[in-house]
Amino acid sequence: MIKMSVYYPADGGSKFDHDYYRTRHMPLIQERLGDACLRYEIDKGLLGREPGSAPAFVAACHIYSPTLETFQEAFFPHSPEIRADVANYTDIVPIVQISEIVEG
Protein backbone atom coordinates (compact mmCIF):
# COMPACT_ATOMS: atom_id res chain seq x y z
CA MET A 1 0.00 0.00 0.00
CA ILE A 2 1.15 3.55 -0.65
CA LYS A 3 0.27 6.90 0.88
CA MET A 4 0.45 10.28 -0.80
CA SER A 5 0.89 12.99 1.81
CA VAL A 6 0.39 16.67 1.04
CA TYR A 7 1.62 19.15 3.66
CA TYR A 8 0.73 22.85 3.72
CA PRO A 9 3.44 24.82 5.61
CA ALA A 10 2.11 27.36 8.11
CA ASP A 11 4.53 30.00 6.84
CA GLY A 12 3.87 29.22 3.18
CA GLY A 13 1.02 31.60 2.41
CA SER A 14 -1.80 33.69 3.72
CA LYS A 15 -4.94 31.61 3.30
CA PHE A 16 -6.27 28.12 3.84
CA ASP A 17 -10.00 27.38 3.75
CA HIS A 18 -10.36 24.22 5.85
CA ASP A 19 -14.09 23.95 5.17
CA TYR A 20 -13.64 24.02 1.38
CA TYR A 21 -10.79 21.53 1.62
CA ARG A 22 -12.90 19.12 3.67
CA THR A 23 -16.21 19.47 1.84
CA ARG A 24 -15.13 20.07 -1.78
CA HIS A 25 -11.47 19.41 -2.61
CA MET A 26 -10.89 16.07 -0.92
CA PRO A 27 -14.27 14.64 -2.06
CA LEU A 28 -13.32 15.72 -5.61
CA ILE A 29 -10.09 13.73 -5.35
CA GLN A 30 -11.88 10.71 -3.93
CA GLU A 31 -14.44 10.83 -6.74
CA ARG A 32 -11.81 11.13 -9.47
CA LEU A 33 -9.59 8.39 -8.04
CA GLY A 34 -12.45 5.94 -7.49
CA ASP A 35 -11.23 2.57 -6.20
CA ALA A 36 -7.63 3.83 -6.26
CA CYS A 37 -8.48 5.90 -3.17
CA LEU A 38 -8.95 3.39 -0.38
CA ARG A 39 -9.42 6.22 2.10
CA TYR A 40 -8.08 9.63 3.00
CA GLU A 41 -7.35 11.58 6.15
CA ILE A 42 -7.22 15.33 6.73
CA ASP A 43 -5.07 16.90 9.45
CA LYS A 44 -5.62 20.43 10.78
CA GLY A 45 -2.53 21.84 12.51
CA LEU A 46 -3.08 22.90 16.11
CA LEU A 47 0.28 23.25 17.89
CA GLY A 48 3.99 22.93 17.33
CA ARG A 49 6.54 21.17 19.50
CA GLU A 50 6.27 23.55 22.45
CA PRO A 51 3.01 24.33 24.28
CA GLY A 52 1.43 27.39 22.72
CA SER A 53 3.69 27.37 19.66
CA ALA A 54 2.35 27.59 16.14
CA PRO A 55 2.03 24.38 14.11
CA ALA A 56 4.56 23.72 11.34
CA PHE A 57 1.69 22.93 8.96
CA VAL A 58 -1.78 24.46 8.77
CA ALA A 59 -3.07 21.27 7.17
CA ALA A 60 -2.11 17.96 5.61
CA CYS A 61 -3.86 15.16 3.82
CA HIS A 62 -2.98 11.52 3.34
CA ILE A 63 -4.44 9.48 0.48
CA TYR A 64 -4.09 5.69 0.65
CA SER A 65 -3.94 3.57 -2.49
CA PRO A 66 -3.27 -0.15 -3.12
CA THR A 67 -0.15 0.37 -5.27
CA LEU A 68 1.89 3.19 -6.76
CA GLU A 69 0.86 2.13 -10.24
CA THR A 70 -2.84 2.11 -9.34
CA PHE A 71 -2.53 5.57 -7.82
CA GLN A 72 -0.64 7.04 -10.77
CA GLU A 73 -3.05 5.60 -13.34
CA ALA A 74 -6.02 7.08 -11.48
CA PHE A 75 -4.51 10.41 -10.41
CA PHE A 76 -2.52 11.75 -13.35
CA PRO A 77 -5.38 11.97 -15.89
CA HIS A 78 -7.20 14.23 -13.39
CA SER A 79 -4.21 16.18 -12.06
CA PRO A 80 -4.92 19.35 -14.13
CA GLU A 81 -8.45 19.58 -12.68
CA ILE A 82 -7.25 18.78 -9.15
CA ARG A 83 -4.41 21.32 -9.31
CA ALA A 84 -6.73 24.00 -10.71
CA ASP A 85 -9.00 23.56 -7.68
CA VAL A 86 -6.17 24.37 -5.24
CA ALA A 87 -6.61 28.13 -5.78
CA ASN A 88 -10.12 27.80 -4.33
CA TYR A 89 -8.79 27.01 -0.85
CA THR A 90 -5.17 28.11 -0.52
CA ASP A 91 -2.24 30.12 -1.84
CA ILE A 92 0.25 27.82 -0.09
CA VAL A 93 2.64 25.78 -2.22
CA PRO A 94 2.34 22.27 -0.73
CA ILE A 95 5.02 19.72 0.04
CA VAL A 96 4.15 16.33 -1.48
CA GLN A 97 5.56 12.93 -0.59
CA ILE A 98 4.56 9.46 -1.70
CA SER A 99 5.51 6.71 0.73
CA GLU A 100 5.22 2.97 0.97
CA ILE A 101 3.34 1.77 4.05
CA VAL A 102 5.69 -0.79 5.58
CA GLU A 103 3.68 -1.50 8.72
CA GLY A 104 0.31 -0.53 10.08
- What separation lies between the terminal Cα atoms? 10 Å
Indicate the proportion of strand residues. Answer: 25-35%
**Cα radius of gyration in angstroms:** 14 Å
Number of strands: 4
The major β-sheet equals: 4 strands, antiparallel
Mean pLDDT figure = 96
Helical/strand content category = alpha+beta
Strand order, largest beta sheet: 2-3-1-4
- What's the tally of helices? 3
**Residue share in helix:** 25-40%
Instruction: Extract low-pLDDT stretches.
Output: none
Order of helices and strands: EHEEHHE
Give a short synopsis of this structure:
With 104 residues, the protein is an alpha+beta fold. 30% of the residues lie in helices and 28% in strands. The protein has helices at residues 18-33, 68-75, 79-85; strands at residues 2-9, 39-44, 57-65, 95-100.
Structure notes:
With 104 residues, the protein is an alpha+beta fold. The chain is 30% helix and 28% strand. The protein has 3 helices and 4 strands, in the order βαββααβ. It has helices spanning 18-33, 68-75, 79-85; strands at residues 2-9, 39-44, 57-65, 95-100. Strands 2-3-1-4 form a 4-stranded antiparallel sheet. It starts with a strand and ends with a strand.
Topology:
Elements: E1 2-9, H1 18-33, E2 39-44, E3 57-65, H2 68-75, H3 79-85, E4 95-100
Antiparallel strand pairs: 1-3, 1-4, 2-3
